[in-house]
Amino acid sequence: MAERVLQPKEEELLKRERQLAYELKACLDGFKRAQVYAKNLQEAIISLNELFLLVVVGEFNAGKSALINALLHDKVLEEGVTETTKQITIVRYGEKGKQFQPDPKTVELLHPADFLQEIIIADTPGTNTPWHEHVRLTTDFIPRGDLILFVMRADQPFTESERKFLGLIRKWGKKVKIVLNRIDTLSTPEALAKVITSVQTKCKNLLGSQPDIFPVSVLQAQESDITLGPKARQLWQNSRFGVLEEYLFQRLGQMERKRDKLLNPLDTMQSVSTNTQELVENHARLIDQDEVIIDTIYDKLNSYRKDMERDFPNRLSKIENILLEMRASGDSFFDDTIRLRNFLKLLEAGQVSDEFKYSVIGDREKQIDESVENLINWFVDQEDDLRRDIVKQLERRRLLITQGDDAMSVNQQVGDNRSDLLQTMAESAKNVMRTYNPQAEAQTLSQNLRLAVAGAVGTSGIGLGAATVTFAVTTLTAGGLIGGAVLVGLGLYIIPAHRTRVKHHFHKQMDELRTKLHAVLHEQFYRELDNTINHMRNHIKPYEDFVTLEGKKIADTRKQLTDLNAKMASLRLDIQRTF
């Protein structure tokens, strides 16, 4: 605050306010969605280092530049019926005629008027200018102002653009005074009183309070400066401009300016904090919805596992039932074949083996392969449905977020990482679905299963059905269980015992086969099930990590804002007590 003299207590208040401003800036830096307010905060920080800033706003042709010239009692700024102010024009104390341009959007003029040693005046583009950039310059400059002079025309008061702009001033909590210019265009005092009452009512409805209204004629005030004698005094009296000057240069004393100089940036900081809190809560609601989506996906994954684990035994039992039927057929075959009446046939192992294949094996090789194929297709179809369901969930969320951003101008300005992330995930998932080939997946799964079974039963390069048949036939002939040489050596009298031995060995081997197949299929099933679920978890992990990180940011920002609001409230109370 570039005041002439600050007392130690005032200096301490200024130091505290600067510290709070930088803490709030750090808070905004940590919550990127609030960066839209960073410029307003920066303007407030700048204003703490300046003299009292009087900002003059209003529609073009309302007489803003003429008003400033009248205050200076000199024609410093260009005036006209068309828009003449295209930049922010700052008038400071200094040698007359000097001009600087610190940036493309700002011009600084120097003038030796005494009051400029304690007050800076800013002239702004019209609030209803057709150039949107000019309007933006004015709105962006508002947070820096310590006092806003809103210039209206008495013959056209409270237009729609003026109403909107006053609403913006209210948003930033700025102290505003209404200057009702061109009162010389009104024919009677009653007409002026009517206009003042109307403006008071509309301001109260919009702002919640009635700001001071200064009815003036800038034209008459300027004419009084170039007129001599009684006519000059009459023009000055009729202009009522002296009342405005008295307020600005006398009633608005040094202590009041110091107070407002501290309170106005604090008001801006409070407004930034409030707006940031609103953003935080809006974002928190979105994050809550994200968490619901993630929980829903995990619920789907858990349900998918439960459903698969519930249905798998039933599908596995179909294969096991074929093996049990084969075992039963084997019993019948051995009972009918290993008998004394078949002694000569039993001497021909090849003939017995062929009959075994025909009677016991039959088309069970085909049945097993079909059952395994159905099992694989079921698994692949379920996996495909799960992928599509999760993709739809993410895509619906992405569309909802995108539509939400369109409806929320702040998020639209700063962008939303969530939407970008979901877009990337949705596209990635779609690409996966486009390249996902259920037939190829089934073939890969079948190959993996074939290799696993081959390792378990000691075969290779054949299907599960063929491997099962090969194992059964090998079991039958291994060790010459029904070979003629064995029968001749043992003698006819032990054929029943031999039949029992063959059946027992066949049962043992078939049970071993069934156990091995069960273990292999069970292991392969859970391996593929875990792979599918882990793949889906990995796919949504970036989204989950994003939501977790944003949740932490929300919690941290909430705490920071709560602490800052308490400090700002304490500082405001101390400022009000001091001044």
Please describe what this structure looks like.
With 579 residues, the chain is an alpha/beta fold. It has two domains: 50-252, 3-Layer(aba) Sandwich (Rossmann fold), CATH 3.40.50.300; 280-552, no CATH class. Helices cover 70% and strands 8% of the residues. The protein has helices at residues 8-30, 38-48, 64-72, 132-141, 160-171, 189-207, 218-225, 230-239, 241-251, 254-337, 343-346, 349-361, 364-407, 409-414, 417-435, 438-457, 464-477, 484-490, 495-578, and strands spanning 52-58, 88-93, 99-103, 106-111, 119-123, 147-153, 176-181, 213-215. The protein has an eight-stranded mixed sheet with strand order 3-4-2-5-1-6-7-8, with helices on both faces. Helix 17 (464-477) packs antiparallel against helix 19 (495-578).
Work out the strand percent: 5-15%
Mean pLDDT: 80
Biggest sheet overview: 8 strands, mixed
H/E series: HHEHEEEEHEHEHEHHHHHHHHHHHHH
State the separation between the terminal residues, measured CA to CA.
15 Å
Keywords:
8-stranded mixed beta sheet, 579 residues, Rossmann fold, alpha/beta, 8 strands
In short:
With 579 residues, the protein is an alpha/beta fold.
What topology emerges from the helices and strands here?
Layout: H1 8-30, H2 38-48, E1 52-58, H3 64-72, E2 88-93, E3 99-103, E4 106-111, E5 119-123, H4 132-141, E6 147-153, H5 160-171, E7 176-181, H6 189-207, E8 213-215, H7 218-225, H8 230-239, H9 241-251, H10 254-337, H11 343-346, H12 349-361, H13 364-407, H14 409-414, H15 417-435, H16 438-457, H17 464-477, H18 484-490, H19 495-578
Parallel strand pairs: 1-5, 1-6, 2-4, 6-7, 7-8
Antiparallel strand pairs: 2-5, 3-4
Helix pairs in contact: 1-2, 1-10, 1-19, 2-10, 3-7, 7-8, 10-12, 10-13, 10-19, 12-17, 13-15, 13-16, 13-17, 15-19, 16-17, 16-19, 17-19
